[in-house]
Design brief:
alpha/beta; Spore Coat Polysaccharide Biosynthesis Protein SpsA, Chain A
Length: about 250
């Protein structure tokens, strides 16, 4: 292990998902890098009193178009736990927080100069390393064939993200309570105050299907009218978010 390594690596993993932990631990350790396991919070195990500390229906109605599932609440709290562990550990300057269903593409060490370009400095900054769709926005950095973009609309997902310390502190201060999923919350950069950048090319592959599927998937068989209503609400919410994002972007840049 290189003691000069500026990045701390944190993997969010349910204690019951031992095979996932073994897989990602072996994968990252093969690069000679130590990782810290962050025990994920299983939302279904939370009491109503525990949930109410962080999430309320009133806040949810203001921020999102439908109530959060217990798994989504657990996911948000798990990422906050990872950020807290990083903030409380003064040994590393930056955090790479991964979910346990990803693999780096090729040798992960070739990406680290891009991470440093993006998150160094005192401005609260996070760099997303995965997106399911093409991201549009101006280039912020372009070196060694790797491009970093400031997106007009931040992509969903929290599969793998790099944070500097000011960003972690800022996000923890902002989201001591929340009413929407964490990846949606990150899209509201004008509210949480963290600069969100995205790598134009993915640094990881999502391998959830190979590992048995998502731990926060919706397994309920809802009636068709409910599904239609939900999708209409989702589309309207998404439309308003896109317009707001473009408006905030035009004001800021």
């Amino acid at each position: 292990m290189n003691t000069d390594e500026p990045f701390g690596y944190y993997v969010i993993n349910l204690d019951s998902s031992k095979e996932r932990w073994q897989h990602i631990n072996e994968h990252i350790s093969s690069y000679g890098i130590d990782i810290t396991k962050v025990s994920a919070i299983y939302g279904a195990d939370l009491t109503s009193q525990e949930i109410a500390k962080y999430y309320t229906p009133e806040l949810n109605k203001k921020q999102f178009f439908m109530p959060l599932k217990a798994a989504e609440i657990g996911c948000f709290l798990s990422h906050l736990r990872a950020l807290k562990i990083f903030v409380n550990n003064n040994k590393k300057m930056y955090a790479v927080i991964l979910e346990d269903d990803v693999e780096f593409i090729g040798d992960m060490r070739r990406f680290r100069h891009q991470w440093l370009d993006a998150v160094q400095g005192q401005e609260p900054t996070m760099l997303k390393l995965f997106s399911r769709r093409k991201v549009y926005g101006p280039l912020v950095y372009s070196q060694h064939g790797l491009n970093t973009i400031r997106p007009r609309l931040i992509p969903l997902g929290t599969q793998c993200t790099v944070y500097n310390r000011p960003a972690a502190v800022q996000l923890l201060a902002t989201y001591n309570q929340f009413g929407m999923p964490i990846d949606v919350a990150y899209q509201y950069w004008w509210e949480h105050g963290v600069r969100v950048l995205v790598s134009e090319s993915n640094h990881v592959n999502e391998i959830s299907a190979q590992l048995g599927g998502s731990n926060i998937s919706d397994n309920y068989d809802f009636p068709l009218p409910f599904k239609i209503k939900r999708e209409l609400k989702r589309s309207w919410y998404r439309f308003k978010l896109v317009l707001n994002s473009l408006y905030q972007y035009s004001k800021a840049y």
